[in-house]
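cron nightly-structures :: item 1 of 1
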Amino acid sequence: MIKINQSPATASPVRRTLRRVLTLAVALAAASTFGLATGAAAAPGSPGSTVCSGDLAAGSYKNLTIEGTCNIDGSAMVSGNVSVDTGDALFLSGAELGGNLHMSAGSIVMAFYTTFHGNINAANAHALYLFNSTVDKNLTFVGGGSGPECVDPDPEASLGNDTMVKDSSIAGNVKFDSWSGCWFGFLRNTVGGNVQITNMYANPENINYPGTPQEVNQGLDSTEVIGNVVGGNLMCSGNTPVAQIGDAAPLPNTARKLMGECANLM
């Protein structure tokens, strides 16, 4: 899993390796490109929809369809909706999307310092990584993931099988329901409406990086809900493991009402 909650003095070798992976991603994001795509760059499109597979060229776009892997930075202006096709991936760094983002089954989105003026809707998507970003409407993620038998792969070869939202602002409501994978976290976010985290599942027998020296059992180290400021209610139920502080810094959650598993995370 990709986590950045412990200090270098207390982090295990596994955590330190994962931090290096995420640090690399941050550095690449700061350079305004992830450099992960191999397809040709998409050219600025007509007032309709443009297919992106590669680095999205600087310019103005209305609607986008993501096929394969697409990288978008702040040089491309997207005024409409973005749809990530089944099994495909979108990487955003300093970008601004004017419409809604739809994540299809098996898709992945990773975003750093990105503004979403519409909703984020995920239906059976594989994973969402949202860092230091803003969502002006609602965030809804239902179903999906890599499955209840998830085992984290070597981070040198994959992003992992996690879903997390960290240090971000969502103006509307947040709903995560019935995703299963290796690790889920909702940390240090500001939410204007209600937050619902229900029926999430992380494999309690998950082993980090099979066949490597860092092969260790993560145990029930998931469903971390920490340090969030929620304008409405924060409700957690039916999660495996139950919502917890975990091994992160013990920051309290604040909300109009803390409910279910989150009632004591204050």
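cron nightly-structures :: done
The first strand starts at residue 49 and ends at 55.
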